[in-house]
Design a protein that fits this description.
single chain, about 240 residues, alpha+beta, globular
Length: about 240
């Protein structure tokens, strides 16, 4: 099960009116692909005219529930012509980024050179047993990277600094964050560790990372992808979410 990250309207997302980078590559002459997503029913509604009212109603309800925690009601472009952006960090590089952030907060722990998430004997995406991650997510620890390490799967274009759990459009309990805060945390992590320029970040995203690459190489690619998309989400005031 692969991992993509999507930025765009939720109507477009649930209508499947978008293509992953793998699907885009296939259309340009690459090997054919068939996308299979976890927990997606065979009879899922894909008509945007049915989806859009449901999205707007869900957004209104969530906005009312958050109440005074928001500076203004949740709002973003759900029109048919709204843009979208996407890229594929893969679970091992996304997890490597989370571990990189966790170890940055606990310099007394030795950061592993190898990416444990990319090794054949580890289930890809399983970073929860790592000692630095466990420390960072401990109840009494105040992490600087809550948007990264709290298992958020959707980030909304709104100005709040916390993460929270609420019902997703599918009815599934989901953890939500905020795009602007995520971008801020990613920039803080870069300033604390790599101090990479915009040109370096773009090179990391372009070069990618092979499965089994060292932890830092994997984390750099995961970072470059996530930061690129978080910036697009903030610039265009659109939601950002994990797709798998």
């Amino acid at each position: 099960m692969g991992l993509d990250v999507y930025v765009g309207s939720l109507t477009r997302y649930f209508a499947r009116d978008w293509k992953t980078v793998v699907e885009q590559a296939a259309e340009q002459g690459g090997p054919p692909v068939q996308m299979v997503r976890a927990h997606e029913p065979d009879d899922a509604v894909t008509n945007p005219e049915q989806i859009r009212p449901a999205v707007i109603a869900w957004r209104r309800g969530l906005s009312e529930a958050l109440g005074s925690h928001l500076r203004s009601p949740l709002d973003w472009d759900e029109s048919a012509g709204s843009p979208y952006f996407t890229d594929k960090p893969a679970w091992d590089c996304y997890g490597a980024l989370i571990l990189w952030a966790a170890y940055a907060e606990h310099p007394d722990l030795a950061r592993p050179a190898a990416n444990p998430l990319g090794l054949p004997d580890r289930r890809t995406g399983d970073w929860h047993s790592d000692p630095a991650y466990r420390r960072t997510t401990a109840e009494k620890f105040r992490t600087s990277y809550a948007q990264l390490v709290s298992d958020a799967e959707v980030w909304l274009p709104a100005d709040y600094e916390f993460t929270f759990e609420a019902q997703w459009l599918t009815g599934t309990p989901t953890r939500f964050g905020a795009c602007r805060r995520l971008l801020s945390e990613l920039d803080a992590l870069n300033a604390r560790t790599w101090k990479a320029s915009e040109a370096e970040m773009e090179r990391w995203r372009r070069d990618g990372a092979e499965v089994g690459a060292p932890l830092e190489s994997s984390a750099r690619f995961g970072f470059a992808v996530l930061r690129f998309l978080a910036e697009k989400a903030v610039q265009n005031r659109l939601p950002m979410l994990l797709d798998y």
